[in-house]
Amino acid sequence: MIFLKAFIVGGLICALGQLILDFFKLTPAHITCGFVVTGAALDVFGLYDRLIEFAGAGAQLPIMSFGHSVIHGAMEKSEQLGFIGIGMGMFDLTAVGITAAILFAFIIALVFKPKG
Amino acid sequence: MKTKKYEEVIKNHEVKPNYVKNALVSFFFGGLICAGGQLLIEMYVHWFGFVRETASTLALVTVILIASVATGLGIYDEFGQIAKAGAFVPITGFANSLTSAALESKSEGVVLGIATNLFKLAGAVIVFAVVSAYVFGILRYLLIEFNVLS
What we know:
Chain A is mainly α. Chain A has helices at residues 2-24, 28-42, 47-55, 57-60, 64-81, 85-88, 95-111. Chain A has one domain. Chain A has seven helices and no strands. The longest helix of chain A has 23 residues, at 2-24. Chain B is built from eight helices and no strands. Chain B has helices at 2-13, 19-46, 52-72, 75-83, 85-88, 91-104, 110-117, 123-145. The chains are: A mainly alpha, B mainly alpha. Chains A and B meet through helix 1, helix 2, helix 4, helix 5 and helix 7 of A and helix 2, helix 3, helix 5, helix 6 and helix 7 of B.
């Protein structure tokens, strides 16, 4: 059942991105940036956490969850340390994703030859 | 006057995107990636006994690894042609933008090529994530401070 939920919610987010892309003639970069901001905004009232609870990976894999994780780490840290924690905790939760992506991208760029 | 006519002609010959088909294709492939991610999470939980939170992180790293390798092999770009938003909205698109930017500028060297251009495409996402997290984070901090939110 959780697979179906992940499929539908994740698919809907992607379809929404494609519709915005086609209707407003934007580029993928605009869509991903917009989604990241949306994810951060949805976390102000804890709405994105509920979506993750409901859909699991369907909410965690779309780029929206990147915005959500950034602000989530900031809020967690600021609960302990006050105002300065917002800046300190910002990459707490996203560090794994970013560092992994940097590492793999670097290694693969070294090993593979560019195509096309 | 001439440019107006030109624009008119262009407009008549413009290929209109097939909204429904594109959205359905994005829905299918994006959903498939998310369901695959969920499968990875369940595998890490049930087979390797990880806590759900750790399993989610591991699944994320696995998905990023797969996307990076697929980019290196040139598969992901072809997939992107078919899947459209289903390929760039999931976090795999983020990994793809890092790897493809690094690969493209490989000829300029390791430092000035790969390392310098790594964030050429993905940088925008991080900039917007941080700026919006500051804005919304301060907003939420103030709301909690003044007891509007708990």
